[in-house]
Amino acid sequence: MISELPICVALPMYRSRYNGWIALESLVRQRNVPCNWELVVAEEVIDCFGEKAVRSYASKLKAVGCASIKYISLDKRIPLSMKWVLIARNSTSKYFLLQAVDCFSQPSRLKETYQIFEKNSPDWIRSPKGYFYDMSTDKVYLFDQGRFASHPGGLNMATKTDYMRRLPKVTKFRSIDRWIYSSISLLIGNVNISENSSENWKYGVDVNGMNRISRRSLRMENEEKGFSKTAVKINEILDQGIINRLKESYLLETRLMKASETLLR
Asked: How far is 35 from 110, CA to CA, in rounded Å?
């Protein structure tokens, strides 16, 4: 019988040739993780980051408690909603941490998520605040859940793997956080939420402009849906080596997207 690990870090990828490293670099920088955990990646073969690249992080991930890496290769695109469920059904873990491919998670995320689950036994964990870095403008924005109270998701989200396994198979590519939360509500009724009130959110960032799904630039610039402008610079959050790699990857990703658009014309 396969033993259960406490945490599954669920990492769906899509056309992540140039941005698949972002989440992984944040995971190898996790600090003082108090338990073993597993990484489960699901990715389509087109423009992929690839299993070899994922497994190149194996030794560094092991050093911060990752006891297992599972890579699910998909021969055709599936909706993100179904990809989360697929990852959950390939997980042996108790808790399910939703890791976006373009999210550079703050260094205590795994530690704090585990401790909150063990202390409060919530159904849903979220951080009410977080930084977003827009690659196209080189600006940092703040997302504040309190300014967008109608959205249940938040940032740095986690739930119980059993709930994710039981979600319906539906075709949904956008507004996935809201769909997951609403689906769990339908499964269990009232959702017990714990917010991560740690100030460590200041040391992580979501990167806008580095994936094919989320497009937030206008919302951020117009200060809509919880976003506000800041005077924070990206070098106050990330080290220069990561910033340089982000900029290089952004140029490559932009060229790839333009080439794809040209082929579709």
From this structure: 9
Q: Would you give the DSSP letter of residue 229?
A: E
Give the percent of the chain with pLDDT over 90. Answer: 77
What residues are paired with 95 via a beta bridge? 7, 160
The structure tokens listed for 26 are 């944040």
The percent helix, strand, coil of the chain (3-state, each to 5) is 40, 25, 35
Residues 6+ apart with CB under 8 A from 55: 69, 71
Compute the average pLDDT of residues 110-117. Answer: 98
Q: Pick the closest to residue 78 from 17, 19, 18, 14 (CA basis).
A: 14
Question: How far, in Å, CA of 141 to CA of 189, rounded?
Answer: 34
pLDDT for the residue numbered 219: 85
| 5-128+149-210 under CATH 3.90.550.10, yes or no | yes
Residue 165 CA to chain centroid, in angstroms? 18
Where is 205: in which H helix or E strand? strand 205-208
CA distance 76 to 132: 30
Q: Locate the domains of the chain by residue range.
A: 5-128+149-210
Residue 241 CA to residue 149 CA, distance in Å, equals 35
